């Protein structure tokens, strides 16, 4: 019987099942079991609610410690893995996605979540974002967009709006901001959604849908930096007199042009799934290549495979 404790991918990319206790007997994790450390964010930071909803997702979907991996770069939002009692990596600024890609391709059995900020994702990590999306590597990437560099105390980020006054733009930002949704769609992400930390049910719904997507799933989650950009998202928060507008029911999520058009709506824009298509993942393609290679050397010992390789090089 297959078990969450013992399913490990074989060299060919297949899952090897080793007999183990019935998974039905195993209880899901509680928030107490999954919460590692007291988050060090400023009181009122939007990132708290995203973390709380990640815990909720883990509880709701009955994920176990060894089945979840949380990866991040550097930034306030990127502290995420430190606060989760499971395997995780707090990696280099902007380099979370390449690290996560390695995990995804070698351990396709894991639920892989990557969290980070707008600077991490679209500035220093911009290229990695495009390439991970186009390769359709299976993982869920949640960008906690606060329109500012929080950790380093208020510099202009790639999503800061024109005119935003920061330590790097004392007279107001002059560079046109990027649109994360348009960028994700154009780069080839197969799941693109938008949510905001002020609507917990919606965040959870988007995370669940992203997790269930077989491919690279991207969520832009507005997450307010109360310290350096207070009130940035008030226009999207009904409790602050704003509007939370869901993606229209008739929107066809497989229509790339329609998704692109939704992304162009002026702030606060729409929230929900903009784009979702099924395409073969790099994981599946590589597993196929690995299997074909392993079939060729079936029955041979490791040293015999190595010998054959060296013989070929002669
Ligand atoms: C290679 C490198 N360059 C720059 C930094 C400094 N640095 C750390 S976090 C950060 C930006 C953080 O902004 P963002 O990714 O939006 O995350 P936030 O803190 O807003 O959540 C920068 C520039 C670094 N740690 N490493
Ligand atoms: S500086 Fe901003 S993003 Fe960082 S913890 Fe404080 S409120 Fe959150
Ligand atoms: Mg930021």
In short:
The protein is α/β, with parallel strands linked by helices. The chain has helices at residues 31-34, 47-60, 96-106, 118-122, 126-135, 180-187, 200-212, 256-263, 282-296, 302-313, and strands spanning 8-9, 15-16, 68-72, 87-90, 111-117, 139-145, 148-149, 155-156, 191-196, 216-222, 245-246, 270-276. Helix 6 (180-187) packs antiparallel against helix 8 (256-263).
What's the layout of helices and strands?
Elements: E1 8-9, E2 15-16, H1 31-34, H2 47-60, E3 68-72, E4 87-90, H3 96-106, E5 111-117, H4 118-122, H5 126-135, E6 139-145, E7 148-149, E8 155-156, H6 180-187, E9 191-196, H7 200-212, E10 216-222, E11 245-246, H8 256-263, E12 270-276, H9 282-296, H10 302-313
Parallel strand pairs: 3-4, 3-5, 5-6, 6-10, 9-10, 11-12
Antiparallel strand pairs: 1-2, 7-8, 9-12
Helix pairs in contact: 2-7, 6-8
The structure holds thiamine diphosphate (TPP), iron/sulfur cluster (SF4) and magnesium ion (MG).
Magnesium ion is lined by residues 75, 117-119, 146, 148-150, 157.
Report the sheet with the most strands, covering strand number, pairing sense and barrel closure. 8 strands, mixed
Give the class from helix and strand content and strand pairing: alpha/beta
**Percent strand:** 15-25%
* Ions, cofactors and other bound molecules: thiamine diphosphate, iron/sulfur cluster, magnesium ion
Oligomer state of the chains in this structure: single chain
Mean pLDDT: 93
Instruction: Flag low-confidence runs.
Output: 1-17
Distance between the termini: 45 Å
Return the string of H and E elements.
Answer: EEHHEEHEHHEEEHEHEEHEHH
